[in-house]
Amino acid sequence: MPPAPPPPDDAPSPASASASASASAGPAPAPVRGTLHVFLGMAPGVGKTYAMLTAARRQMALGVDVLAARVETHDLPETAALAQGLPRLETGLGAGAGAGLGAELDLDGVLKRAPQLALVDDLAQVNPAGFRHPRRHQDIQELLEAGISVYTTLNVRQVESRAQTVAQITGTGIPDTVPDGILDHAEIELVDLAPAELRRRLDEGKVFVPDRGTVGMVNFFREGNLAALREMTLRLAAEKVGREVREHHHSLAIRQPWKTGHRLLVAVGPSPLSADLVRWTRRLADSLGGPWLAVHIEKAGPLGLFEQRQLTANLALARELGAEVVTSVDADVVRGLLRVARRHNVTQIVVGKPAPGPWRNYLGGGPLPRRLVEDSGDIDIHVVRAGNPDTAPAAGPARPAEDPERREYAAALGVVVVVTIVGQYLSPGVLNYRAVALLYLLAVVALARRVARGPVFFAATVSALLWDFFFLPPVHTLWITTVEDGLMFGMYFVVALVIGQVVAQLRAQERAEHRREERTAALYLLTRELADAATLEAIVAALARHLRRLFQADAAVLLANAEGRLGGACAGGTLGLRPGEMAVAAWAFEHRQRAGQYTSNLRAATALHLPLDTPGGPLGVLSVRLPAGGAPSFEQAALLEACARQAALVLDRHRLQELAQQIRLDAESERLSRTLLDSISHELRTPIAAIAGAAGVLGAEPGPSPGMLATVGEEIREAVARLNRLVGNLLDIARVESGQVRPKMDWCELADLVHVTVKHLRRELAGRPLAVVIAPELPLVRLDFVLMETVLTNLLLNAVNHTPRGAALRIGAECQEGELLLTVADAGPGIPDDARPRLFHKFYRVPGTATGGTGLGLSIVKGFVEAQNGRVQVDNQPSGGARFTIRLPLAAAPAVPAETL
Amino acid sequence: MSEPTAGPIVLVIDDEVQIRRLLRLTLEANGYRVFEAATGQDGLAEAAQRRPDILVLDLGLPDLDGVTVLERLREWSSVPVLVLSVRDREEDKIAALDRGADDYLTKPFSTGEFLARLRVAQRHARPAADAAVFQSGQLEVDFVARTVRVAGKPVKFTATEYSLLVLFARHAGKVLTHRQILREVWGPDYVEQTHYLRVYLTRLREKIETVPAEPEILITESGVGYRLVVK
After folding, report:
1. Is residue A666 included in any domain, yes or no?
2. What are the phi and psi torsion angles at A252 (to 5°)?
3. ipTM score for this prediction
């Protein structure tokens, strides 16, 4: 079973995906994860299903809601009898009679029915095309996440880390396996049977055996094999129990569980043999009870297509088996491995034993294990013989025609031949035969800049031979007659090889450096642009732009709404999603797993959906449609993942900012509405009370005297004026707030404006010395007469309200630097410094001022002045008293034709 | 008319009962005869039937907008109209004045002011406005001799200044909007050239006012226009 998922070919099932999206009822109340019981046996026929059914019946008797979701009775009477009384799913997936027995697992059906315990036979089963997940263990994971406990069965030969060994012992093929990681979180129930007993049951026909007649199966059930399988099964169970006991002790003793334990590292390369190495390490890690890392050291040289794919598969396998995967870059594998090992406090390193006769290892600085042993210091080294490549999974074409490489060999040969021909012309006339060697050397160096290492070696070798044959006397033989020529030939060969090697290495390193730099630069650029983006749309657009540049992919961001469900695509994305695709995105969001294109979940979808996870919970999904043409390489996938992580961080930050902003706004609007209600009710009720009082006086018996009547009339007039002013203020501030102030700019004479305003306020200004100083040369000013009258009125009333009775006022107007300066100054106490910044905020009143007034006047002033492109400032005069200054832009008024008398 | 000797007839078109009641109280106390209408349609019918000497019109009516009532009324009647409204935006005032209202008063208003405006509006309707000489306070304009005297002394005016002053004098007491003035004096092409008006108003004031910075004859109506006050 190749660990890499096969290319997506099965039919999409968005309907079932959407059904699950609605059935699992949103992620908000995350159910407690169900427990997984695995009934583990050494071979088919030991009675796993029987044991499972027995245990299920016990649970049912205890009142647990059990559902036989899928049980394989293989028509064995005893098993069928046990299965008879168990509840099954009413409607199976196309299976008429006996749904739940023998039919495929109806995942959505089970999720909808939501039993406490589901029985699902055969953990290692591969789902037919068209199902949501390619593997049954993924279905089971989803059941567990939904809070449903599961009983399932498994043979030891189907455990990924054991499968290879079993295959070697029994000589059978490797079946479909399950990753060991699943067993880590499972309760294992061992179903044991003595080998002799199993053989007896086999002979009695009480056992279902697939392909029972075949030679392979007959071999499989040999008693010796069964004994070995039994031991392996017992050990697997024992290791798990032992590890749990140890973990328990650790957690009691010290907080850091792995501090004293072992930490393993396995070196993973692009070789098919690495997969074996990974499995071996997993077994070792299991028995030692330590965590393990799978490390790939990216060397300078670029990988071929086949190697690239193999490496991705190997690392995926390691991850599946529970390893932490680390990739690092170093031209020297040994140095890189040790660096990673030291950084992760690794105690043991596992490397493969090189195949016999890899002569080039000696050229590259000695075989890897030997150097590792020499440099490793206190780290233990395991050198493990990897299985022979024939048993290794044959992923993809065994040896694809490596076109580029073949072409490079041809090119190398061509160059050497051309040099030979040129040399033939020049030698011995122009050059002597030794100089020709330099020509060859030049060609080899030039080649090394262009082609891979193999072709360079090839060119060096061929050129050495050609030189010997065509140029070294005696010509046209490979004989070398003089010691000097022999030395020459040897030295040429060595120099060509070394230079070729060094140049090729340099170039490869350069290229790797370049690639890494590109990747870093891409991420850096993305980070910077995302940081600069202020709005959600800008963030999404920047992300989409980068994904297009990096992957030629279309992208969209879907964010969760307030209810924790995935909403529609945010503006700024470049990818439109159909409803079916949205359902896949919703699945990815709810399960916090990648889904869709090139993943193992719902992979028939046309886009790849990456959950945007943050420490505070999932934010949403990044949907990417990669261009057609194969799964992304390991490197690309890592980059995509990094982009998603970066986007999640930025989106999270944006979300938090908005939240904070919203909270601030809420607090502010609450404060405002409170102030508004307080001040409006005061300002409204006071004059109303005055009018009501006056009406009472008028209506009283006996009627008021003429003198009283005049006073009462005056009271009413004053109250009405106050009410009218309040209404005017409220209407004005409403205009400012709604942005409805549209000034009608017109040429006005400022003296006229001041005069009209002062005349309207003569009652309020009575008893106040008022100086109006208007510069005589002041031209016509373009402003809105009525708005400015309101501004001036409010400033004057403000001065009247906040200065003692009789305090002088001054209105000034002059030209200054192309601006009109209109000032209103008073001789009052001035404005405290700390009040100044908030003075123009609405409803703000300087603390300690007399009652009366709404705190609206100055904010109206500001709104109206700014609507006319002006500014308003406030300061205290040196002589004391506040001074408000309005600045309005001045323009030259058009000329009026002169006229004679 | 049943009582020919009684005072002038006022038709009040307003939908607010309280305002109508108050106006009736005030007007009857001052010798007017009052008729009321609560809607625009009723108001137009009443105006046709009662032939009032003056009409008090509210702009916010339930069935028709006051400006529409004014337009329909002006199709057949030149009765003086005093608009009484809560709408205090200049656009509304200008719209009403440009469509033939004689004056505009914003609610709330003082009774004294209301009666004064009413009297001025009534005067426009009288042929006396076509007199050969206009006199108000220290200002004296002789339309026939085309001379102006201020406090008894002759003052020289340019042609434009004079026609501006004549326009104000002919409509003494009435608000003239910027557009109306510009159209009458400078012609229809000049209705937007308000700076002409500002410059000439300042010159006029310098010639006829005692303290030009605090005018008492030619007063400014904010955002709407000017009014020549009758003394």
Report:
1. no
2. -75, -40
3. 0.85
